[in-house]
Amino acid sequence: MDSVAGPSQPQASASQPRHEQGLKSEAEQEALQEHLLLLLGDSNLPTGGFVASAGLESFAAHGLLRSASAQTASAQMLSFLAASLASYARSVMPYLLDAHALAQRGADAADALITLDVHHEASLLSTAARRASIAQGAALLTLHSKAFAEPLPLARGLQVPQSAKPPAEAALEAFRMQLRKGKTAGHLAVCWGLFAAALGIDAARAARMHLFLQARAMLSSAIRLNILGPYAAHSLLHHHLRAVLRQALAACGAAPGTQLAAAAPQREGKEEAVRDEDEAQGWAWDWDDEGAWAAEEGGKQVGGAPAVTWPLGEIVQARHDVLHSRMFNS
Known about the structure:
The chain is mainly α. Helix content is about 50%, strand content about 5%. The radius of gyration is 21 Å and the shape is globular.
């Protein structure tokens, strides 16, 4: 694969990351995306994901994961993962997909990204979940600036020439600047969508990778909490979680083959109050619950606006800070 684009080579399009300069075939672009996914799957990547248990520590401490054998422990852990991942995908993935789409607008998307991030902040009711999301979002933006934005200055002959920044990278930098000014929180889902777009990873791959890493982090937490052994955890990851992840992605409209909706979290026009026929209920709001988050698959609408599908998990996670002892920050 050519790593240097000379004057006679085709100019990279504005939507491509600088790392795609000189790519000539679809196969080479596919190989680049696979390479990036391998990098993001590295457990040594400093994103802070392994200091958060996503509510598992609190769930176990409250006695909701009772097991008399390794087999029942695995079954109960799988049940927890299925419920947690389904709720996480349904409540968080719309923000990731919107951030990815908004990034294509470049630096002009900063205000819309802040609005999206503020909306996400309001949707996270648990202090522990909010704290972990902000910490991991900041770590992800730092990772981009330190490792992915520019190559290391090496000796002559090893330099990688750089071209103009793509719009998605400009959007990420503009958002990071607003974060430094304290104008937004920088939640993980929004930062991940921007990060993936800046690297040129498509939205569907970004969503699948993000949810897989969420599942892997929870299983890592289960090992350290002595809920599962490493063999049982990886057995679940290999044999059972593939279907769980696909179902969770399908529920939020991010499964393979789904036509992802364009990003537009803000509604156009004002909602109008209408008179409800039930006199006891009084006034009601007549609005479209799905808004701009709807996606289509096979001509049918899937996904929808962010929503928590497992209230018990959110309530138990909110009690994380009152545990007598804690290993994780969420």
